[in-house]
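Note to self: keep these together.
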Amino acid sequence: MTKILFDRLGGTSGITTLVNDVVEAHMNNPSISARFLPYKEQPEKLAVIKQHTINFFSAGSGGPVTYSGRDMPTTHKGMNISPAEYMHVVDDILKVLDKHKTDDESKKDVLAILWSLKDMIISK
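Structure:
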């Protein structure tokens, strides 16, 4: 039996590491960094956002976690995220998964989750 995605990503610890690395990648990506760099000046807010992201992906990957944050349309309302920006986010996530030598099945599963969220996030 195949392990659930949560376990394949390393559980809470692994997902926390991935989220931290993804946020860093976003901050270093000139195509989207303007959306993320201001949070360097707001470490408390950044910590909350990271924790919500960890909980969201933990719950969405089958982990024993309850996500209690806002839904995706509400969270991204008014941000006017373009399809190109969304693809930069996806690319950063896939690069981080590669950096951590994530197996192909897990990368495909993460990509499927990201693709399922696309219409809830772009230009809301």
